[in-house]
Amino acid sequence: MHCGGRIQRMFEPQSIEQLTSLISELDDFFVLGGGTNTIFCDDTCTRPVIRLGSGFDLIGIDKTGLRAGGATAIKTLLSYCRENALSGIEFLSGIPGTIGGALWMNAGTRDLGIMERVSDIDLADRTGVHTLKVSDIHYGYRNGGIPDDAIITSAHLKLDSSSKQQVSQSMERYMEKRSNQPRGYSSGSVFKNPTGHSAGMLIEKAGLKGYRVGGASVSDIHANFIINDGTASTSDIRGLIGTVKQRIKDQFGIDLIEEVRIID
Ligand SMILES: Cc1cc2nc3c(=O)[nH]c(=O)nc-3n(C[C@H](O)[C@H](O)[C@H](O)COP(=O)(O)OP(=O)(O)OC[C@H]3O[C@@H](n4cnc5c(N)ncnc54)[C@H](O)[C@@H]3O)c2cc1C
Q: By the 8 A CB rule, do 103 and 144 touch?
């Protein structure tokens, strides 16, 4: 979103050993992936931030299937799938960020999330390292169901053999659907779609397209996007989110819930 202040302490562990030793020493932390769905406060963020280092950026095939690291970019994994004719996650095409962030958010489309294509997830927390079967995780729409104090280090994906051409065409179709999305600094959709509704349609019906607080405005193209014109503070974005929520509550009686994460 291109706003926010400074992070006081940032750690970039390169291995499981470094990661587990680090979290055993921290009382609290925030895990940052690609930051595409995260907005930091305007002041200094005093909460320690952990971003997985290059040792967690991996793609490999083992007995259980394809394993991708928590720090691997979604885009890199999609390129690998296209090159190796592996089908199943084309719906992630055009979504920025990392596999760790995508799993935590259960990123995807309105109907499909990455968790549908995962068999197990490797996590690290203060008690050590664990592997969770996805069948034991309660995930849902834009919610991977991952415990708050756990860090996703890698995951196995369930993919199907296909042809390069089919995988490419399917990815292009998803990219085509995104071609009319707003450009500029944004975090993608700001609110989750309430059951049976489209957050964007509700915001549009409330007449809020183009509504502005400081440098932040509701996109004229897609009302669930907030665009930073380059001058917005996090406080502008918070103010705009607050106004939108209040107007939707007053007009339709619906509570919008943020999909973006704002970190103090
Ligand atoms: C233009 C644009 C379009 C977008 N379109 C979509 C879309 O169509 N569908 C969709 O679902 N999303 C979309 N997004 C939102 C975002 O890109 C995705 O949710 C993405 O998966 C977030 O990944 P990230 O690595 O950037 O996560 P971050 O923003 O860094 O983090 C998001 C959350 O995941 C947690 N997290 C990150 N890494 C880990 C880890 N290793 N272990 C544990 N927790 C972790 C963070 O703590 C945070 O709570 C869009 C964003 C933009 C900017």
A: yes
CA distance 114 to 178: 18
Q: Is the CB of 151 within 6 Å of ligand 1?
A: yes
Is residue 95 within 6 Å of ligand 1 at its C-beta? Answer: yes
CA of 98 to the centre of ligand 1 (A): 7
The owner of tokens 């944004």 is: 186
Ligand 1 within 6 A of CB of 200: no
**In one letter, which amino acid is 143?**
N
Residues 6+ apart with CB under 8 A from 248: 202, 203, 206, 254, 255, 256
- Please state whether beta strands 160-161 and 86-87 pair in parallel, antiparallel, or not at all (unpaired): antiparallel
Model-wide pTM > 0.85: yes
Distance 32 CA to ligand 1 centre (A): 9
What is the mean pLDDT, run by run of 10 residues, along the chain of 264 residues?
A: 96 98 95 98 96 97 93 98 98 98 96 96 96 96 94 97 97 95 96 97 98 98 98 98 98 98 94
